[in-house]
Amino acid sequence: MRLNHLSYAILLTALPTASLFAAGLDRSGQSISAFLQPGNYAEAGITVIDPDVKGKDIVGRHVSDMAEDYYFPSAAIKVQATDKVSLGLIYDQPYGADAVYPTQDSVFTDGVEGTSVDVNTQNLTALIGYQPNKNWNVYAGPVWQTVEADIKLRGATYGDTGYEIVVKEKEAYGWIAGAAYQIPEIALKASLTYRSEISHKATAVQSSNIALPPGLLPQLPNGLANTRTDQVDATTPQSVNLDFQTGVAANTLAFANLRWVHWSQFAVKPSLLGDLSTIRNPGVRQNLIDYKDDQWSANIGLGHKFNEQWSGSALVGYDSGAGNPVTTLGPTEGYWSAGLGAQFSPAANYFVQAGVRYMWLGDAKAQTGGNIVGSFEDNNAWAYGMKIGYRF
Q: What is the pTM of this model?
């Protein structure tokens, strides 16, 4: 069963919402599917996430929706330079977090501001692939990544410290490598892709409204506000993606994706936050963000070509989360999901896709400094995606 270029693109209808409100800070899923398309190819897309995360704090007070809506774009271009050499460039925003706790009475607010988190990353992946024959493709390349963040901790759960950290945008580099195998006649394609961890050493400006004992921190003249500018280290995790698709009937593809992310060794340990926590609990230094388990996620589904212009897909997904209890900055543990996608191709060389996905978010206990401070249950999220693809 030989499929044409339009049919090869069926799988893409699932991708605008392929990795969403996932474990840790994971967002885009870091797919390289665009690079494995036949011939010359370019795409651009956007995904919008609408989560609803509510719960109760440690004393039983209701916490209304603390998860902010957010969106992230993506783009890619792949050029088949020769019969055996291909080049690619992929842009995405692989990690991030957006949350603001409401100012209603709870341990997560000081009555004026609620605890909030805004973490943003950008990735630019350059790839070169070598195809010794029509079946095999081996590829590798460098990865450029930036990270920036603005996080505020407010309320009794953080000792009313009024702690804030602003991490200035900083670039760092990693690498990617993998291999793909295909049998075009039956639309079979499998790929295994490894991404290295990326170590960031960024400048962080930290502040608190708690005056620390002399010797721990230079204090401003008013004696009330403390600031510290130093380096904070953060290493975004290594990951592995396994992708598979095959024709199962006329104009029908089955596809699957499995992803592993090494979150269990991820931790951000700002110095001032550690000092503040030590004063409250001698011998305990609080991390800003950390996770106890690695993330495993999977998506499986079917894509079908209805005619020369229309195709669609359906999928189900699972994300394990990265351990429970979790950080207060993202109090969910994984999800189950179901999604639908559609693709319209006005001509053989370009198409427009749209997808929607619903997620049942996993219940989680929120913790800080090793103490449980809240419970978040029966939450959900919607995701919407659009993508334009062009073959040239």
A: 0.93
